[in-house]
Amino acid sequence: MEADQDNKPATLQKVDMGKVVGSMDILFLCLDALRYDAAAGEEASGATPVLNRYGAWQKCQAPGNFTYPSHHAMFAGFLPCRYGIKKLADRELLFYPSAIGLRRKVPDGSYAFNGSTIMEGLARDGYLTWCVGGVSFFDNRSDMGKVFPGYFQRSDWNPSFGCRVKDSTKNQVDFILDQMGGIPPEKKVFLYLNVDAVHYPNYFYLEGAAHDSLSSHAAALRYVDGQLGRLLDGWKGRRKRAFVICCSDHGTCYGEDGCYLHGINHPMVDTVPYKHFFL
Question: Does the global pTM surpass 0.90?
């Protein structure tokens, strides 16, 4: 893959999801609120060696401007799409929702699923679907916080995974690695992990900072990178090969044009990093 420099887009490896589904585990790692420029900057400086090991970030359009709409789209198969596409037909769909009638023919390389979500389709094809939550939309503590976890056969969250916990990603990864041993090796797994460390608040990842900024956002990503290395290395011990989707659901603002955080349409919110790769 090529790094995204001088507006030259990164090229992702072509994937035949028909060969992935049924033969490999699938990991979906969402780095909640990670903006593209921060990810690309840390990549270029070599500060995220684990993620760099698996290829360059692709500049993409976010499916929504905050967690709730974005995940409804992604869980229906509409992952972040290439930044420069001009029409719906140009979307490259790893997961093709059969019921929606987008095209007469399933696109080459897509996994056509039946049901209202990717997880429902994969469960019908024998997968254990597992969610490990982060932000409050995955915390099971409110009616709205139960919606996304309810799409999975298994969902886990506890307060140590929350946004305000500095070791949240470490705690999530420790939990996953501990629980993996209880899953039969022959059982295929679709794991969704919502990594919330990059989300606000993130000032505590930057020494001496008293408030969130683009610099603390980037520092949080560096912390996450080290923890994801443990997860990916640990997962290799479970299965010889797995397919990984790693992306953000939306970006966030730190004062650009007077805008702050997300839930608004701004280029820093609407532009996200995406990559996929094989372990």
Answer: yes
